[in-house]
Amino acid sequence: MDEKILIVEDEKDIARILDYNLKKEGYHTVLAHEGTSIPLLAAKERPRLIILDLMLPGLDGLEVCRRLKMEQKTAAIPVIMLTAKGEESDKIVGLEMGADDYVTKPFSVKELLARVKAVLRRSKTPVPVGDKFMAGALEVDFLKVEARVKGAAVELTSKEFELLKALALSAGKVLSREALLEKAWGMDAALEVETRTVDVHVGTLRKKLKSEGKRIITVKNYGYRFGD
Ligand code: CA
Hints:
Blueprint: E1 4-8, H1 12-24, E2 28-32, H2 38-45, E3 49-53, H3 61-70, E4 79-84, H4 88-96, E5 101-105, H5 109-124, E6 132-135, E7 138-141, E8 146-149, E9 152-154, H6 158-169, E10 174-176, H7 177-185, H8 187-192, H9 195-208, E11 216-219, E12 223-226
Parallel strand pairs: 1-2, 1-3, 3-4, 4-5
Antiparallel strand pairs: 6-7, 7-8, 8-9, 10-12, 11-12
């Protein structure tokens, strides 16, 4: 199988159980017990999946997740959050921060393994890297730089098209305003352009996409996600 999973858990017993069972299933594991080192460690190790505890010394799980999703090298790595009972609101924030799934402690090893497999399977579904992306009545042609709704061409500005492209290429994942700025306006401009500009362009993009505009979902105080 040869797939690497990064386990971030400060409770040594839980970390050990996860480590043991994931290895038994044929995964490679990397263990960490605090949050601060994780963004760099993940960029270096490039795991296929990260199991991330919420309450961690150093950076907490939410902040770690946020940083992972902001960084191009690690943004695509799926994250399963471990939360304790009573941390439900954090769980929701975690999903908004880009976590792919969560498991509540105490959990059964069987359940966790099932989630790991499901998340890995999902993240293997082909990313639309070809020249076309389709969702419902929307068709985006990356080569021709064209968008169509129900077969009719939609006139988009270059920024609107770049935004749509960035969202479509990360379909299902939350992208922060900063990440969208960087993708559509470029790294240098991202420092000068206000993040509110993204909201304005998303607004006009949604209108132009008409019935398909609702696919661009607002994630409050954070950014946007292209959904089904
Ligand atoms: Ca903990």
